[in-house]
Amino acid sequence: MKASAGGYARASSLRDALEMLAASDGSGRVLAGGQSLIAAMNLRLSAGDFLIDISRVGELAGVSETADSLRIGALTPHAEIGRNPLIRHHATLLSQAVEFIAHAAIRNRGTIGGALAHADPAAEFPACVLALGATLHVEGLNGTRDIRAEDFFQDIFETAIEDGEILTGLSVPKAGADERQVIEEVARRSGDYALAGVCLVKRTGGHRVSLFSVGPKPILAKNAMAALDRGDVEGAVEALKAEIDPPSDTQASAAYRRHLAGVLLRRAAARIEGGNA
Amino acid sequence: MNEMFRDKIDISLTVNGEPVEGRVPAGQHLVDFLRGALGLTGAHASCEHGVCGACTIKVNGEAVRGCLMLAAQADGADIWTVEGLSDQGTIKDLQDAFVARNALQCGFCTPGMLVAIDELLGKEGVPSRAEIREHLSGNYCRCTGYEAIVDAVETVARARAQKGAA
What pLDDT does residue B1 have? Predict the structure, then answer.
């Protein structure tokens, strides 16, 4: 269908965008790459919004590094996440995830900030930043806040971003020398949302396992992490199945999603440890 | 707040190498501006939620969904549609290969296919059949079963690589 918008304004700076958001009195919607928002408008899941186009706000773009972390601007497109040398080297989980996200033309325009703020429970990036232990940065007219990924995702399409705030970027810890990061998912067709997906990070401090498309938000599977720390992959698979409560829908039953999650964790562990699953 | 937000937006952009100006409704898709205001009906508006790829166009050198970008967002952009790429002759070998391999029947998906493939062929190296399929996974064709399209792309990729090497 055709999209319905109440109005459009292009922000020239973050400050400009925040003032527009404040002035829109709750009906403002932040538009970046638009690959989820405009699709939702076309499906009339969202109508009459006052669009605040931040896609030209240069201060929200770009990737930079400090001694121990990467700072990724909210407007960094998926395609850039996939090819950026800093991200490929220090946070390869994000680069790997890009190959699973939608299709080439959508990856050219969709942004990581948009994907995180949209918080689709079936999307890859929210689960990735959870597994990586990233920090998300938001800004409002009253100042900035840093939010841990664990606290950021709250429910289906719901995040800790408050009215009047915009997600400006995220900080991701650089991978240690012996750190391994892998993502595994199953989708019916290339580019479809996953039926289930797993991110696995093995670092000196221990394993981190996150899942997507198995609940209303990405999930950190703490019992599975503890089992992996003990070197018990089968124990981790059993723990994982017990700590998720996936939905049944037209794509897959809850039992099938739970089964897939276990299979994917086994595959991810095998990729990290070597050998087959 | 209504002074900040407009329901009609003035844009000026370049389409197929020509400067264009327009006044567009806030929610208008870029593909509808190209089709309706400019008469460039090569890019097709089909599923209108980013799944089918029939509306694929080039924006600032990259393949983009014309139904997932607003015309208002295209202010200052450099846009190419299948009409411009055809007139330029840069995809003539690809179009010829589509005909030779029967890579289209009804032709509805073809403009989007050609623009998407143009982006793939612009990258270095000869893509494998799996890479071609993956790159075109967002472009639906309901006639050919894709095999002939992959054949055409593979043929052109190899021919261009040979030409480049010669």
Answer: 54
Statement: residue A277 has pLDDT above 90? no
In A126-242, beta strands by DSSP E: 135-140, 143-148, 153-155, 158-159, 166-173, 180-186, 196-203, 206-212, 219-220
Taking the C-alpha atoms of residue A235 and residue B103, their distance in angstroms, rounded to an integer, is 51
Q: What is the pTM of this model?
A: 0.96
A240 touches chain B (CB under 8 A): no
Q: With an 8 Å Cβ cutoff, are B49 and A42 in contact?
A: yes
Superfamily of domain B89-165: [2Fe-2S]-binding domain (1.10.150.120)
B75 contact residues in A (CB cutoff 8 A): 10
A108–B64: do the CB atoms touch at under 8 Å?
A: yes
Collapsed DSSP state (helix, strand, coil) of residue B63 = strand
Which residues 48-77 on chain B approach chain A with CB closer than 8 angstroms?
A: 48-50, 53, 56, 59, 62-65, 67-70, 72-73, 75
Distance from CA of A7 to the nearest CA of B (A): 5
Q: Does CATH number 3.10.20.30 belong to domain B8-85?
A: yes
User: What is the C-alpha separation between A33 and B26, in angstroms, rounded?
Assistant: 16
A191/B contact by beta carbon, under 8 A: yes
Report the distance separating Cα A18 and Cα A165, nearest Å: 7
Cα dihedral sign for A26, A35, A38, A16?
A: positive
pLDDT value, residue B3: 80
What domains can be seen in chain A, in order of their start residue? 5-53 (3.30.43.10), 63-173 (3.30.465.10), 180-273 (3.30.390.50)
Rounded Cα distance between B12 and B21, Å, is 4
Q: Which residue in the block uniquely carries the two structure tokens 């395609």? A: A79
What does the alpha-carbon distance between residue B126 and residue B160 come to, in Å, rounded to a whole number? 9
Domain boundaries, chain B: 8-85, 89-165
Q: Do A43 and B49 touch (CB under 8 A)?
A: yes
Which strand (E) or helix (H) includes residue B87?
helix B82-88
Q: What is the pLDDT of residue B2?
A: 62
Q: Which helix (H) or strand (E) holds B112?
A: helix B110-121
Query: Which residue, among A202, A136, A139, A195, has the nearest Cα to A169 in the 3D structure?
Result: A136
Q: Closest Cα partner for A126 from A216, A251, A192, A60? A: A216
Do A88 and A35 touch, CB atoms closer than 8 A?
no
Q: What is the DSSP letter of B35?
A: I
CB contact under 8 A, A53 and B73: yes
